[in-house]
Amino acid sequence: MLDWSSLLGQLKKNIFKYRLKPEYQRKFKIGALSIVGIIVVLMLWGPVSTKIDSIVNPTSYGRIKVDKYRDYNALHLKYARRNGISAFKSSADFHQRLDDLLDKDRLVKIKSNKYYVVKHLSHSYPYLTPRAEQLLEDIGKRFQKKLREHNMGSYSYQISSLLRTKESQSRLKTSNVNASSNTSHLYGTTFDIAYSSVVKRSFPFMKFEKQDARAIKLLSEAIGELRREGRCVVVTERIEKCFHITVR
Fold first, then answer.
1. Average pLDDT over residues 156-174
2. Which of 100, 104, 172, 199 has CA atoms 20 to 30 A from the CA of 44?
3. What is the 3-state secondary structure (H, E, C) of the chain?
4. 187/81 Cα distance (integer angstroms)
């Protein structure tokens, strides 16, 4: 536990050792106390906000059940090659060609927004073709609509993988036996949506990762609707716990 009296004493000592004029000493006192107050708020905010959310929005610990979609790799590759960019060989190739593809609207950058959160990407880059980006947003809109219909508040889904290079795909194979040498992730048409958890947006600037089985089932249904409408092909990956989705 912090010794606040010692901390304030040290701050006071540091302030007055320079023998500031009286009119400045008061300003520095207020500034020092403000800094201490901010530190206290930051230290307490995480535990307090988590407790508030656990009371207002208790986690559903029900068993997560999602629809098993079985559009396998050959079908994903068919649409990826037809609608996507030419694959990047390596990270160097990616950085060399990226600006040109962005200027020509062949790729767009994917950023977290009200519909989804981009997780830390270890083997991919946050870029997709414009059609794939539109599909991402449409999944989000469909998901939010279902949440409103069930009075479940605001959730976002999580994107775990996007555009890969042949080099990053090769590295991924060493740690993921489910990774194929030839993947639709190479063409900017494909993304993975995690279904192990979703993000709950409870209060302004507050987000919590939750294993809410009800919300995840609604996400699964939203993806299935767009699949039936001919917007995408999907495979439910059991090992990676994600929906592997390619725009059509």
1. 91
2. 199
3. CCCHHHHHHHHHHHHHCCCCCHHHHHHHHHHHHHHHHHHHHHHHHHHHHHHHHHHHCCCCCCCCCCCCCECCHHHHHHHHHHHCCCCCCCHHHHHHHHHHHHHCCCCEECCCCCCEEECCCCCCECEECHHHHHHHHHHHHHHHHHHHHCCCCCEEEEEEECECCHHHHHHHHCCCCCCCCCCHHHHCCEEEEEEEEEEEEEECCEEEEECCHHHHHHHHHHHHHHHHCCCEEEEEECCCCEEEEEEC
4. 7
Integer Cα distance of 138 and 136 in angstroms: 6
218-238 residues labelled b (16+ CB within 10 A) or e (exposed): bbbebbbebbeeebbbbbbee
Dist. CA 170–CA 18, nearest whole Å: 61
Report residue 145 as tokens. 């609509």
CB of 191 closer than 8 Å to CB of 157: no
Q: Are 110 and 127 in contact (CB under 8 A)?
A: yes
pLDDT value, residue 64: 82
pLDDT at 24: 60
Half-sphere exposure for 247 (CA within 13 Å, toward CB): 22
Q: Which residue has the tokens 């059940």?
A: 65
What pTM value is reported for the model?
0.73
What local confidence, expressed as pLDDT, does residue 55 receive? 44
The answer to whether 187 and 80 are in contact (CB under 8 A) is yes
| Structure tokens belonging to residue 130 | 């414009």
